Amino acid sequence: MEAVAATLERDAQLMLRVREGDDQSFALLLERHRSPVIHFLYRMVQNQPIAEELAQEAFLRVYRSRETYEPTAKFTTWLFRIATHLALNHIRDGKNEKNQDRIDGSGAVVNRAEEQSQDGPAGARQVAERGLNVEQSLLRQARLDEVRTAIESLPDKQRAAVMMHKYEDLDYTHIAGALGCSESAIKSLLFRAYESLRSKLAHLA
Amino acid sequence: MIVNCPLQNNEGAELVLDYCAQKLDPDAAISFERHIAHCADCARVVEAQRSVWDALDCYETLPAVSEDFDQKLWMRIGQAEGRGWWRKLLDGPALGWNSVFSWKPAMVTASACAAVLAVMVVVQQPSATMVDKSPVEKAMIERSVDIDQVEGSIEDLDMLKQLGLVDDQPASTLLQPNVAM
Questions:
Q1: Are A92 and A161 contained in the same domain?
Q2: What is the CATH number of the domain that holds A40?
Q3: Residue A103 bridge partners (DSSP)
Q4: Which residue in B has a C-alpha nearest to residue A28's C-alpha?
Q5: Is residue A164 part of a domain?
Q6: Whether A128 and B52 lie within 8 Å, measured CB to CB
Q7: Do B77 and A60 touch (CB under 8 A)?
Q8: Residue A12 structural domain
Q9: Looking at the domain assignment, is residue A197 inside a domain?
Q10: Separation CA B142–CA B32 (nearest Å)
Q11: How many separate domains does chain A show?
Q12: Which pLDDT value is given to residue A52?
C-alpha cells in the first residue's frame, strides 16, 4: 500500500488524507486548484458570481465524495469533470442566455450587460488597458468582444475542450477524462472547434 | 499536394494544434517546420491557427477571486456535513484561521458586546455614598438607621400614653431589659 501511495500524484495523496478526515489537506487542494477552476468556469459562463457559485459546488462535491474517493484517475481530471458537468448543466438550463437579467446578492435586478461593465471582462479589461490610448483601447475591446462572441458560438463541449486546452493546459487524456470522451474524439473535437474559430477570427490575423 | 501530408491523416490535427501550442518536442517541431516549408495547405492552416491562438491570448485577463470564497465554501461544507460552529473553531488552527474565520464580523460583534457591557456596568453601578464607605462606616450607617427606628417607636408610644391608650409606664422603660426577671 505504501509503495502504491508513493507513486500517486500529490493531489491524489492529499485527497486520500481528506478521506481519512484531514481537512487541512482539503484546504491545500483548494489552494492549489481554486483559481484554475474558477477561471475555467468564468470563461464558460461569462459571469463571475455564477462561476464562483459553480466552483463552490464543485469543491463541495469533491469534499462530499471523499469517503468513496479512489485514485483511479488524475485528481485534476476528476475535478474538471465535475466543473465541466456543472458548467454544461448551467448553460443547458438556459441560465446564461444573453441579456438575461438576474437577481444579484443584494436583491437588485442587474442586467447582464451592466454587470459585465462592472465586474466582468470589461471591468478586468479596464485594468489591463491602463497605459493604452483611447484608440488602442477601443481596438482591443473590439477584438476581445469578437473573440468572446466566437467562443460563445461554439457548441458547449467544444467550448469546454478549448478552454481546458488553451487556458488550463490540460493534455488530451485529461480533457477526454473531463468530458467523458475518448482521446481521439477529443482531438477531433478540438480540431473542429479551432477550425470554427479560425473561420470566425480570420479577419483578426 | 505533398505526399504524406499530416493534414490528410488522423495525426494532422494533433500535430498542427501541438505545434501552434508549442507542445511538440523539438525534433517533431523541426520535422514539421520542414514539411510546412513545402506544403501550402499546412502553412495556411498553421498560420490561421497561430492567429487564433494569439487572439485567444487577449482573453487571459480575469477578475480576481472573491476574498470570502474559502469562507463561504467552508460554511457550505459545514452545513452539508451538519457541523456546528464549534467544529469550525476547533478546526480553525489546523485549516488556517483566515480560511474559516473572518475578522470583519468578529470586530463588529465584539464592539456591540463591549457597548452592551458598558451600558450594563453604568446601570448597575451602586451609589457612590456606599461605595466610598469602609465596612465599619457601612455598619454605623446601618446601625443609625436602627436607632432612628427605635426613637420613632418611643415617640409613638409616648403619644399613645398621652392619649391614655397604654399603661402609665414611661415609654422609655419599655425598651429597657427587665432586671428583676
A1: no
A2: 1.10.1740.10
A3: A109
A4: B95
A5: yes
A6: no
A7: yes
A8: 1-96
A9: yes
A10: 109
A11: 2
A12: 95
User: pLDDT digit string (tens) for A79-138?
Assistant: 999 999 999 999 888 754 554 444 444 444 444 444 444 444 444 444 445 566 788 778
One-letter amino acid at A70 equals: E
Answer yes or no: is pLDDT of B5 > 50: yes
Give the three cell numbers for residue A186: 477529443
For chain A, which ranges sit under pLDDT 70?
1-8, 95-132, 205
Partner-chain contact A38 B21, CB within 8 Å: no
Instruction: Kindly tell me if the per-residue pLDDT of B45 is higher than 70.
Output: yes
Asked if residue A38 is part of any domain, the answer here is yes
ipTM given for this complex: 0.71
Residue with cell 497561430: B50
* pLDDT, position A72: 83
Q: Do B95 and A23 touch (CB under 8 A)?
A: yes
- List the single range of B27-41, B140-154, B160-174 with lowest mean pLDDT: B160-174
Q: What is the 3-state secondary structure (H, E, C) of chain A?
A: CHHHHHHCCHHHHHHHHHHCCCHHHHHHHHHHHHHHHHHHHHHHHCCHHHHHHHHHHHHHHHHHCHHHCCCCCCHHHHHHHHHHHHHHHHHHCCCCCCCCCEECCCCCEECHHHHHHHCCHHHHHHHHCCCCCHHHHHHHHHHHHHHHHHHHCCCHHHHHHHHHHHHCCCCHHHHHHHHCCCHHHHHHHHHHHHHHHHHHHHHHC
Q: Which of A37, A57, A25 is nearest to B99 (CA)?
A: A25
Cell readout for A165 is: 486546452
Run of H or E including B131: helix B128-131
Per the domain annotation, does A108 fall within a domain? Answer: no
Cell of A85: 458537468
Q: What is the mean pLDDT of residues B59-87?
A: 80
Q: Helix, strand or coil for residue A47?
A: coil
**pTM exceeding 0.90:** no
Size of interface A-B (CB pairs under 8 A): 108
Per-residue pLDDT at A165: 93
CA of A138 vs chain B CAs: smallest distance (Å): 13
Among the partner-chain residues B16, B73, B99, the one whose CB lies closest to the CB of A59 is B73
